[in-house]
Amino acid sequence: MYTFLAGIALLIIGYFTYGKFVEKIFGVKEARQTPAYTHQDGVDYLPMNTKKNSLIQLLNIAGVGPIFGPILGALYGPVAFLWIVFGCIFAGAVHDYLTGMISIRNRGAHLPELAGKFLGKVMKHVVNAFAVLLLLLTGTVFVTAPAGLLNNLMNGWATMGLILGAIFLYYIFATLLPIDKIIGRFYPIFGALLLISALGVGAGLVFTGAPIPEVTLSNFHPDNAPVFPLLFLTISCGALSGFHATQTPIISRTTQNEKQGRNIFYGMMIAEGVIAMIWAAAAMSLFNGPVGLNELLANGGPAAIVSEASTLMLGAIGGTLAILGVIVLPITSGDTAFRSARMIIADYFNYSQRKVTNRLWIALPLFVVAFGLTKIDFTLLWRYFSWANQSTAMIALWVGAMYLFIAKKNYWIAMIPAIFITMATTTYILNAPIGFRLPINIAYIGATIITVAVIVAFFYSARKQRAANIPLEIDISGWDKDSVA
């Protein structure tokens, strides 16, 4: 219990301390107009207040990641708490803040465009394809997961096909309509439901004296469960997630002032970390250790853990409300995953999104592909999602480090987590069954060589770009917003 409570406290303290430190390094410009005003189009670019943007950002980035990931990560024991807390403060929240703020400085650009500007033109094409793949996987995962929960909640009253169809129908409207029509109106309500459900489960754990394990030297490295790199790929959302780099530009296009960035981007990642801590603690303490947890996961997956934990902590009615909150969570990330994919493809081809027919031409093929992916086993999808997710986080952190290096600011705040996740991700790819299947010791050596090569390439490119004095932000002086496509 002490590790859990201390972790929650550290996350909150991290927002007020390290969050301010990162904000100071970046250097906000309150007088600078944001894309919400300079590019206002009534669809994707329009100003919304801090409270609304914060709740939308939280729901965008949360998904099932900070619930299902920590539940699966609970198999590694309380060491998962350390990754959630320190990963969130020093990596995940920094990742989200820099991605969002650099996007604001570059007319709300998405990660592929930022990667092309700061890491080279070839990276724009690579990251564009990679980001769309990640978003398709994310959207699909965030269809199948809530559909399974709804099916369980209704005791099979509605078929999975009918539930999937209803969710996809909602996604179509949320992807195509202006952001303030559905997302802007209903997300504050969904956000309240999410927070109430998570805090309810957390309070239940504390007040019932649930046996939440403590971190000790004996359980720091559980038997038959190598912590590195698997833990850092299993728990992504809630600690560090590349999916967030695809979501922050949605809100960078609706942010009113740069000063709001710490609350919206850094702060909401901290809130996601709290949610992740709660569900990791629930999974560790309520099911007779790893053996019982493994059995329940084998029979019903993470969704079964959510249902059981919610009912145990909050009773039948409260548990049902909590489950509804968890169902809302992935749905409100799935819709913005498809919305983000539409925006990325539109930006790549410079295809105007003012007309709904233009949005439809891009969105419909995405939904057709995603529907086909729902036929694939969820566990397999999650493995590929985790790999693609952390690879995207790696790219986004290197973009942040490059931006700060060129600006002659403290780039280590982004570079240190970039190096760490590069090492973890490449080790996983070299060792995993879905990768090259190399022995773990060989994978460590190979990942070290690749990581060192990336560092060398970074400094070589960074010095060239600093010497070339490339512009870090798009000049908005005299911008005619009516000319924006």
Automatic annotation (TrEMBL):
<feature type="transmembrane region" description="Helical">
    <location>
        <begin position="125"/>
        <end position="145"/>
    </location>
</feature>
<dbReference type="InterPro" id="IPR051605">
    <property type="entry name" value="CstA"/>
</dbReference>
<dbReference type="InterPro" id="IPR003706">
    <property type="entry name" value="CstA_N"/>
</dbReference>
<feature type="transmembrane region" description="Helical">
    <location>
        <begin position="157"/>
        <end position="179"/>
    </location>
</feature>
<keyword id="KW-1133">Transmembrane helix</keyword>
<protein>
    <submittedName>
        <fullName>Carbon starvation protein CstA</fullName>
    </submittedName>
</protein>
<feature type="transmembrane region" description="Helical">
    <location>
        <begin position="186"/>
        <end position="207"/>
    </location>
</feature>
<feature type="transmembrane region" description="Helical">
    <location>
        <begin position="387"/>
        <end position="406"/>
    </location>
</feature>
<dbReference type="GO" id="GO:0005886">
    <property type="term" value="C:plasma membrane"/>
</dbReference>
<comment type="similarity">
    <text>Belongs to the peptide transporter carbon starvation (CstA) (TC 2.A.114) family.</text>
</comment>
<feature type="transmembrane region" description="Helical">
    <location>
        <begin position="81"/>
        <end position="104"/>
    </location>
</feature>
<feature type="transmembrane region" description="Helical">
    <location>
        <begin position="227"/>
        <end position="243"/>
    </location>
</feature>
<feature type="transmembrane region" description="Helical">
    <location>
        <begin position="55"/>
        <end position="75"/>
    </location>
</feature>
<dbReference type="GO" id="GO:0009267">
    <property type="term" value="P:cellular response to starvation"/>
</dbReference>
<feature type="transmembrane region" description="Helical">
    <location>
        <begin position="360"/>
        <end position="381"/>
    </location>
</feature>
<feature type="transmembrane region" description="Helical">
    <location>
        <begin position="442"/>
        <end position="462"/>
    </location>
</feature>
<feature type="transmembrane region" description="Helical">
    <location>
        <begin position="6"/>
        <end position="22"/>
    </location>
</feature>
<keyword id="KW-1003">Cell membrane</keyword>
<feature type="transmembrane region" description="Helical">
    <location>
        <begin position="411"/>
        <end position="430"/>
    </location>
</feature>
<dbReference type="Pfam" id="PF02554">
    <property type="entry name" value="CstA"/>
</dbReference>
<feature type="transmembrane region" description="Helical">
    <location>
        <begin position="312"/>
        <end position="332"/>
    </location>
</feature>
<keyword id="KW-0472">Membrane</keyword>
<feature type="transmembrane region" description="Helical">
    <location>
        <begin position="264"/>
        <end position="287"/>
    </location>
</feature>
<feature type="domain" description="CstA N-terminal">
    <location>
        <begin position="303"/>
        <end position="427"/>
    </location>
</feature>
<feature type="domain" description="CstA N-terminal">
    <location>
        <begin position="4"/>
        <end position="160"/>
    </location>
</feature>
<feature type="domain" description="CstA N-terminal">
    <location>
        <begin position="166"/>
        <end position="286"/>
    </location>
</feature>
<keyword id="KW-0812">Transmembrane</keyword>
